[in-house]
Amino acid sequence: MRYIKLYFTCLKRAIISRLQYKADSIIGIIGFLISNTATLLSIYFIIDAIPSLNGWSIYELGFLYGFSMMPVAFDHFFSDELWNTAYWKIKNGKLDPFFLRPIPVLFQIIAEAVQPEAFGELILGGVMLGICAANVGVKWSFGLILLLVIATIFGGILITGIKIFFAAFALKFKRSGTLLQGVYNMIGYTRYPISIYPLILRTLLTCILPFAVIITMPVEAVLFSAFNPYLLSLLIIGVAGAVLVLSVLFWNWMERFYQSTGS
Amino acid sequence: MIEIKNLTKIFKKPIRKEGILGMFATLFSRKYEEITAVNDISLTIDDGEIIGYIGANGAGKSTTIKMMCGILTPTSGTVTIDGVEPYKKRRQVAQNIGVVFGQKTQLWWDIPLIESFKVFKEIYQVPDKEYKERMDFLCQLLGINEFMNQPVRTLSLGQRMRADLAAAWLHNPKILFLDEPTIGLDVLVKENIRKAIKTMNQKYSTTVILTTHDMKDIENLCSRIVMIENGKIIYDGSLSKIKESFGDIRTIYVTLNYVPQLDKLNTFDGKVTYDYRDGGLAIKFNAQQIKVESVVDYAFHTLRANDFKISEISIEDVVKSILKKQNEKS
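Output (structure tokens, whole complex):
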């Protein structure tokens, strides 16, 4: 309870921080629009040449692409500070003050910043998903909507968990940004049907870094009724919870290796 | 009470070779050089003391302080704060300590100062009544009211330092670590900060551990000084004792428009030493052995000095003379 109140205090602070730089926010939004338009266009051109990919039509691919943005956006909103931590915060001794306060370091990192741009990603993903769903002719049911909501929220939690795990290496090795980046970029593979990949990559994406579980599988459940939505929801909650707990434990263990800089 | 027993910190550094090829070689090399930053020091600090922890750059001050507040783990030996080892129970200790690193700020860069204080209030769970009371007191003491609504990035160094001090005091810590709190500040702000430290120490009997390069800080504040050099404590005692044993050394710098012959100058029976460099003459003497007036008189009338500056003993001088004395003994 105390931490919920504290989180909102920090959240307020983080938002005030963000609003200090209006130009920066606007540039951020413009940059986001440009990069996503470029991606959408390139997908459109590729698919225009090949009308279907492994049996997926253009709208089905669009649905997958749109949905893949949503858990990513959810994670992006809450845990962006993990990037700074992994890349330079520890190396530059900027994490010292966090270790001097009587609350968990990981909590402070998560509460340090929020990314309001993530709302843009969420909306863009949602619109794309909606348009494509209408064209595909998805028969919506309560179970399917619940599945997508749960996959968005718990998928976001899973991504945060994986980020925590790989950012934790920086506590001992001072920097783990490149490692984290490499792992995070694997999410990009789930923007396309995973059936196009070799077995080893499919195994990696379902069992080791289970991004396919939170993105590909719910989409297949919606489009092709491949899975029972309720069972899949439970699976997603379970996997995300397990990854988060494991990552937090790993982080806490790695904290023991944290050493401040010399000066 | 802080107890330090046989505290040692050794940093391992890979031996680096120069150049790009050398850097690659470093990646695969397992050779380390060991740097002993703190070497077997023991110390007890009682509640309510103000300790001046001094030494040259790189002597091991910051390393010791970091071990005391729990962000560095000792290689061997222990630190305990009221029986708890800070690097083992970091969060428990954090509630009772406040830290100000002169070079880095604890405050959030982008937001008005008052917002930072509000966050600290929640983090340290300061009750409303206490928060208000202490804020009023700190505002008055440090004069931070005038820039309370400005973002921290727009504050001057002196303002920021006062704000950092206030933030460290907000939760009424039992122990306050101040790492060079007056670095880079002008005389007035320094004076202000010293007064605040003294007042807080008296009002709340906060233990203060202070590192500084400014002799005035120490003269005004510290009842006890601990001096460290090459990771070892070379002196632990009162300031007046140091002054007694090393004397009240003053240096007068004068400029002359001719080159003096050093061996022909009046040494007042060996009580005054001279050093000539870049057109300036440094006259060093002990004010307890010889009157300042007579040296000044000699400099002006006999040497015909045309510019004049007097300085008191600096920490570096004290460290140097203590080291010299130790070397002579051994």
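Residues 70 and 122 of chain A are 5 Å apart (CA to CA).
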